[in-house]
Amino acid sequence: PDCFNNRANLPRNMIENSMFEEEPDVVDLAKDSTAFPTFPALDPDEVVYEPRSSRLLVRGLGENEMDEDEEDCESSARLLGMSFMNRSSAHRSTSSPYTRQSPPRSCSRPSARTLVVCVLFLVIVVSMTMVLYFLPECTFTKSGCRKQTTPAEPVYPISTNGEMFPWAQLRLPQSIQPLSYELTLNPDLDKMTFTGTTVITMTVRHDTKRIVLHSANLNITKATFKLGDGKATDVTVLEYKPRQQIAVKFSEELKAGQQCVLTLNYSANLSHTYDGFYNSSYSDKDGNKRVLAATQFEPLSARKAFPCFDEPSFKATFQIKISRKPDYMTLSNMPKAKTTSLPSGLQLDEFEKTSVKMSTYLVAFVVANFTPISKNVSETLVSVYSVPEKKEHTEYALDTACKLLEFYNSFFEIVYPLKKLDLVAIPDFLAGAMENWGLITFRETSLLVGKQSSLLEKQVVASVIAHELAHQWFGNLVTMSWWNDLWLNEGFATYMQYMSLQTVLPKLDIGNLFLDVRFRALEKDALNSSHAVSTEVNTPEQVEEMFDSVSYEKGASILLMLNASLPGDQQFRKGIIQYLNQFSGLNTDTDNLWNSLTQVDVSTQHQNVSEMMSSWTSQKGFPLVTVDRKGDQVTLTQEHFLLTSDNATHTSSLWHIPVTYINDTCSLAPDCKQVFTLKTKSETLKVPQSIKWLKLNHGNTGFYIVHYGDDGWAALIDALINNVNVLTPEDRASLIHNMFALSRLGRVSFRQVLSLLNYMTNETETPPVTEALLQLNNIYRLLDKRQETDFVSRMKVRILSYFGSLMRNQTWDEEISVSKQELRSALLETACNLNVDSCIRQAKALFKKYVESNGTAHIPGDLQRVVFTVAAQSEESWSTLLEKYSKVSYDAEKRKMLQGLASTQDTRRIAWILKEGLQGNIIQTQELPLVINTVSSSFSGYLFAWDFIQENWNQLIEKFPVGSFSIQKIIKSTTSQFSTQAHLNQVQGFFSSLKERGSQMRSVQEALETIRLNQRWMDRNLPSFNEWL
Is 422 exposed, middle or buried (0-12, 13-18, 19+ CB in 10 A)? Predict the structure, then answer.
């Protein structure tokens, strides 16, 4: 709220964190003045830092924010302890408590008691008015506080030892800047513990009496402090666990410009989850268990391995030493400088000091016995590490990494700054990969591919490597200031992964994948529970939740749209080179990027990139552009494409839209595209009267959906039925996606969707076929789970009428083209799922051949999932598949076997596989989200999966943090196919019962909204299904 932005008074967490978490133990200074008779004047830290997008989103209310007057009133009520001012609608009675009464017939004199009560009431009213007027000196209006004289004192929490903790905000104070860290770590892989020493050299930025930093689950055994050239003295470290903060207080002020050193000795357990400094294990070729330790610090877990200023803007240098047994090796961000033998028989590896300043979340180290293969690129030694048994699967990754490093060095015109770049496959790793500077860690499936791997499997590996290498510039060299702008890291790395592979490895045909992720990002962003690309984050759960499709895929999509709308192909590149050079080694926000792109405008018609793009990053959602053509006049109108719309959420959002369009006279060549900028609610453009049709959003490079009206759609459908090739495959897929989206919105009937799909009998290209199959399969599964058996069988007939002949034409041998592999796997998975006899027969025959040859007869990579899924439906083959799963070493194949096993319709086996995924013995727990997703898609499994997450919620959030991508995926998998009121009530009841264990997550709001939308679609369309199908 504006009231607290520009004045040094109550810390932000007092107003905002209370909405998300339980109140901590605090000392109320008003009550306990004897405990702390004097209070330090506020230092500049108390002036709250506020990210640019600054409006608090109260998640429990969806994102229908309170209006500002109401919000101000809420805040002042909290501050003054005035519960009667709580104006939340939940507490407001529907009928006024002050009912009008008929006037009394006679006046009686008030009693003495009544007079006393009245006088007391008046005194209270006057007192409260004076408090409101004098204490904050603030007029609560939309413009916020006009003036302020005496700031209210912050309310400080209590540390673990009972003393007052000297800081009351989630964000650290800005008074101290770390310059360098010296870390010594001594892991004991037998006891699963480690000890450490952290020496932090700091500079004082402005006068302060405290140093506040982060520490989580570390037992600090000794702390010393040295100011300038003075003597090191012991200091007491205070800890406030709810915010994972520690602090040292001083009786005399540290002065701006002084340097100081804080040394902390500590011990801790290795983490048993997938973050911090955690232990992992695998079985070697002889079946022996091998133990290792690795790190995953992004976003908030460096503090679990060493005490640090764990926010992206506190960049520093790092020098790391790690002790190990002689039969282990260690890796860190920098090359190893030397190894010394210790009296204990251990070895101490010392790494070079980092040659760059880094954010803490990019620090990494590994203690294991891995084997490398290496190659030099320019001045950099590139290596890929894996467990010794999988060394043969590392060559493709090394070759790809080297090609991409050369490409990025040249494209960005800034050479990768470190001497080495390691890519390490970790047996137990939750994320796909992590971009630690100089030591990129990967899940084995994201880095290792076998000799016989299909191009589709190589595409997965190349995409992840391209993404993580792009981060070495976007994220590592230039880093977002705070997690509200995470998209500057992730949106850019996602965009660059597709852009780089189109140039470096064109055979991978990455364009189809990029088109698909843009479609999926539009679907998520159409929900009212979505969020702006750059949005405020205040709690650890909200930080975790930023790792979603809005930050990644929408971020990438709007960068593609911007590049496509700029003249020529160089302005975008020059703009990002300018941005990287200007902010190298620094932290930035979204405006810095737009300003860099605006500054290098090379066109004659100057375009303000900042003005255009801020409409795409500062508000959630995207526009629906409606086309209305009358003769040579085409009127384009924009509105917010919002699936859940009511009066409360009605928005007057406007976007600066670079609308591209083609027509029937020129529709295929790149230079056919014309551009029209739509900035207002509605604008008109002129076209020749003779043209038959218009197609907007050429190549679907824009992040918006188009409605052509009845006549416009009819003209496009006629054109496609006459000649499928009048539009590119991307444009045909775009029409299919938009038509289904408009049906979900309620702007077109399902009959209109089917009339567009009538042209599909002539369609053979991957993007339109895979998009249509995905949309139809979604509806088929919803009908199936509602047990609408009649409609299910009619849908099956309809799907086979569109794609039956294409399905029959697919081969089951090796296929070279990636695009054809994508097409074939989508068609055959649908065919076998619909129990098409020929598909089931072929899949069974291929599995039988594979088993009889003892695994030497190879199943093509793109067909493995469909073959294993069919095999898993028979009791005998399921057992055979499980046996193969426990023995196979190639990870991509193993993962597809797991999907086959989880697709069983046998309920006992479903229960077993879910439980096993949670325990992590036969099936790694990192694969549990995949298991739940696969179980949820089947008729027999979806209710099991929903029961399972309710029964085991506490264990799930121990393994996967609240708000994390894994939890988001689990919630979406288990709830997205519900479409009845009974299920909606169940889901709502369960998640609201969780309180601080997950009830406030955005993914919960998404789940509830999705169920309501499924229900609405069914209610609207089921009555007419008979005549349509």
Answer: buried
